Amino acid sequence: MAETGPETAHLSVLPGETVEVVGARNGGVFVDATLGLGGHTEALLEVSREIKVIALDQDPAAIDLARKRLKRFGTRVEIVQANFSDIRSVVGERKVDGIIADLGVSSMQLDSPDRGFSFRYDAPLDMRMDPAGGGETAAELLERIDETSLANIIYQYGEERHSRRIARRIIERREAGEQVMTTSELAELVKRSVPFNKKDRIHPATRTFQALRIAVNGELEILDGFISEAVDLLKTNGRLAIITFHSLEDRIVKRAFQRLSGKCSCPPRMPKCVCGAVKSVEILTKKPIVPSAQETDQNPRSRSAKLRAVQKLERELN
Fold first, then answer.
1. Section 169-187 average pLDDT
2. What is the value of pTM for the model shown?
3. Is residue 248 scored above 70 in pLDDT?
4. Which domains occur in the chain, in start order?
5. Can you list the alpha helix ranges (DSSP code H) found in the chain?
6. Would you state the pLDDT for residue 107?
7. What b/e string do you get for 198-234 counting C-beta neighbours within 10 Å, with b at 16 or more?
8. Which residues on neighbouring strands pair with residue 31, listed in sequence order?
9. d(CA 193, CA 188)
10. Calpha distance 217→236 (Å, rounded)
């Protein structure tokens, strides 16, 4: 996750590559499962007047801005407030030609002073994608979680090797009767817990903030299920394209695509396959598509982006 300023807030990552790999040149009905500010949806709709897009996002602030951006397309775009995991209930019985998902947090969310995603602002420690949804905030999570579970979250979701030390500091503060309520309080705690290394290109708190955001919104738990449902909603030869921004997401996407492409997951010494692997997709990106040097210069947020895609086969193949 890269922190960026408002000058890059309108820039979608890998827009041309996404339109191309999802097969939009042929027209049809597409789903943008993570609308954000509407950049990828706009890119799809601009390809052809024969394209319609069903767009989902759980952030009402992002939806308001995207509606204004996409107003000129009229009824060719249908916007629904929903998490990407709700794709089946939104799409219903319709089969679609392509589905895209950009799993990055938008610059608008990072740069919002009151959302609690960024340590660049002193704000309540919220981190919910849908603040009106009634879910647990990051501050509430830190108030009730035990030390071991917190360390595991920071290590697994943030890939932070100092996770135990950070968790201990947070719990010690809580046991002293002081809650961690703001972004600046958490950032300072993490900074004091992590040894200074001038070679690091990112702030010491970046990985911890990422981990808590993922935990609060349940991002990784729903990703694998989303991929299976998305493939099921595609027409034959329809395509699914997913953009990830950190290794955990990319690993889940890569493994899910491999599983759906029929790759056996049984241990090597098994005499025969018992995992039930069935080939229902063809992987279109043997290696992930990454941004060009020109794009990363224009939009530093795109540096860690990886685009992977699959195409649904005519029938499931054993």
1. 95
2. 0.86
3. yes
4. 6-108+219-317 (3.40.50.150), 112-217 (1.10.150.170)
5. 15-21, 39-47, 60-70, 87-91, 107-111, 138-144, 147-158, 163-175, 183-193, 206-217, 219-233, 247-260, 293-298
6. 67
7. eeeeebbbbbbbbbbbbbbbebbeebeebbebbbebb
8. 54, 99
9. 9
10. 32
